[in-house]
Specification:
Layout (H helix, E strand, L loop, with lengths): L6 H5 L2 E5 L6 H14 L3 E4 L4 H8 L5 E6 L8 H14 L3 E5 L2 H5 L3 H23 L4 E5 L7 H14 L3 E3 L11 H10 L5 E5 L5 H10 L3 E4 L2 H12 L2
Parallel strand pairs: 1-2, 1-8, 2-3, 3-4, 4-5, 5-6, 6-7, 7-8
């Protein structure tokens, strides 16, 4: 499957990610410049850097993605709503929100359903009323901490909420993404929702296998090396 993707199509699967807490402004600036050169789908950065990224990526095809409730997800719903509104107000085009993992592990699915539903409702309402642009909502579930039963329940909730993507992991959890994570999610949800694989994606081989398994976005800090590896393999 992957060989049918052009270099441009591959680039548009990649959310080039820099969420390390000790990155500098200079790191973010050079990171965004390289993302622009490679035409990635988005850069995924911490909220304080949104204005810097937005300025560099203005009038490009690279979206600015930022995080909410990251990486633990234990913030209150009200705090997450504030974060999302603040991110969007500063220019974020996409939101990656970590669910309240403790509530999920407690079996409190009504809380999780409310949390996601409120977030989607607020973002959808405000994107139309104030910003007149679609804001992609990606909900992070941290696969490595969940049972298959929990994954099945939460994925159904996410798709029914109207979110745009299910994201496998934060990159700070028990482990990164595995092929079986993506395969399981794809067994549960329809093609109406995207799957963002994230955590430990470092090579072209990793990217190829995850896309073949059903991922439509890849969250990785290795986007540049993946693209360069693709170019060497296919002479493009």
């Amino acid at each position: 499957m992957f060989k049918t993707l052009t270099k441009e199509q591959l680039a548009k699967t990649i959310d080039q990610t820099m969420l390390n807490p000790i990155v500098t402004i200079k790191n973010i600036q050079s990171f965004c410049i390289s993302a622009k050169e490679y035409h990635f789908a988005a850069v995924c950065i911490n909220p304080s850097y949104i204005p810097i990224a937005k300025k560099i990526l203005a009038d490009t095809d690279v979206k600015v993605c930022s995080v909410v409730g990251y990486p633990l997800g234990a913030n209150s719903i009200e705090t997450k709503v504030f974060e999302a509104r603040d991110n969007i107000g500063k220019g974020a085009d996409e939101i990656d929100m970590m669910i309240n993992l403790g509530m999920l592990k407690s079996g409190n699915y009504s809380y999780i359903e409310k949390e996601i539903g409120v977030m989607v409702s607020v973002i959808r309402r405000e994107q139309m009323a104030e910003y007149n642009r679609h804001i992609n909502i990606k909900v992070i579930i941290e696969n490595g901490s969940l049972t298959k039963t929990e994954v099945k329940k939460i994925c159904k909730i996410i798709e029914e909420s109207g979110s745009d993507f299910i994201k496998t992991s934060t990159g700070f959890g028990a482990r990164g993404v595995e092929l079986d994570d993506v395969r399981l999610i794809r067994e549960i949800v329809t093609r109406n929702i995207g799957v963002k694989a994230s955590g430990g994606i470092r090579t072209f081989k990793d990217a190829q296998a995850l896309i073949d398994a059903g991922a439509t976005r890849l969250g990785t800090s290795s986007g540049v090396s993946i693209m360069d590896e693709y170019s060497k393999i296919f002479n493009k």
